[in-house]
C-alpha cells in the first residue's frame, strides 16, 4: 500500500480498484524490466485471488489490520536462501530496518513509483 499511497490520486475512494491498477502497472514494469516481482497487499479485494498475474506474483497478508503485510514480507525475506538478491519496496522505517537486518535491500515507495511511471511512458 506504500506504493499506492505514494500518489495522492484519490485511491482511497476505491482501494480495490487501486490494487488492481497497481497489479497492471507492476506487470507492465516487470515485463519491460525483466524482473521478478512479488507484491504483498494488506487486504484482498473480493474479486482477486493470490497467484500469478502476468509477470507478477500477487499475495495477500495472512493477518488483518494496519501493516498486515509486514509480517509476511519479513518472513519471505527470512526464508529466502539469498536475501541479498531481494529488494523490498517500502516507506515504512521499521519494516525497512527489519528486512535490511536480514540482508535485503530497500527502495522507497516514492522512488519505485517514479520507476513505474517512467516505464508507463
Describe this structure as you would to a colleague.
With 121 residues, this protein is an alpha/beta fold. It has one domain (2-120). Helices cover 46% and strands 16% of the residues. The chain contains five helices and five strands; from the N terminus they run ααβββαβαβα. It has helices at residues 2-5, 15-33, 68-79, 93-101, 109-120; strands spanning 37-41, 51-53, 56-60, 87-89, 105-107. Strands 1-3-2 form a three-stranded mixed sheet. It has a two-stranded parallel sheet with strand order 4-5. The longest helix is centred in the first third of the chain and has 19 residues, at 15-33. The two termini are 22 Å apart. The model has no long low-confidence stretch (mean pLDDT 92).
Keywords:
121 residues, alpha/beta, two-stranded parallel sheet, 5 helices, 5 strands, globular
Could you name the ranges where pLDDT drops below 50 across 5 or more consecutive residues? none
Structural class: alpha/beta
Q: Report the mean per-residue pLDDT as an integer.
A: 92
Q: Which sheet architecture does the biggest sheet show?
A: 3 strands, mixed
Question: How are the strands of the largest sheet arranged?
Answer: 1-3-2
What is the CA-CA span between the terminal residues?
A: 22 Å
The shape, in one word, is: globular
Order of helices and strands: HHEEEHEHEH
Oligomer: single chain
Amino acid at each position: 500500500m506504500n506504493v499506492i499511497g505514494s500518489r495522492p490520486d484519490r485511491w482511497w475512494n476505491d482501494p480495490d480498484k487501486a490494487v488492481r491498477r497497481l497489479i497492471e502497472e507492476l506487470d507492465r514494469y516487470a515485463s519491460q524490466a525483466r524482473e521478478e516481482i512479488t507484491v504483498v497487499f494488506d487486504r484482498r479485494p473480493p474479486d482477486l485471488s493470490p497467484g500469478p498475474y502476468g509477470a507478477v506474483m500477487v499475495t495477500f497478508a495472512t493477518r488483518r489490520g494496519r501493516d498486515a503485510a509486514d509480517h509476511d514480507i519479513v518472513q519471505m525475506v527470512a526464508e529466502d536462501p539469498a536475501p541479498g538478491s531481494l529488494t523490498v519496496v517500502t516507506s515504512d522505517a521499521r519494516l525497512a530496518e527489519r528486512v535490511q537486518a536480514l540482508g535485503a535491500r530497500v527502495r522507497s515507495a516514492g522512488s519505485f513509483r517514479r520507476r513505474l511511471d517512467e516505464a508507463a511512458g
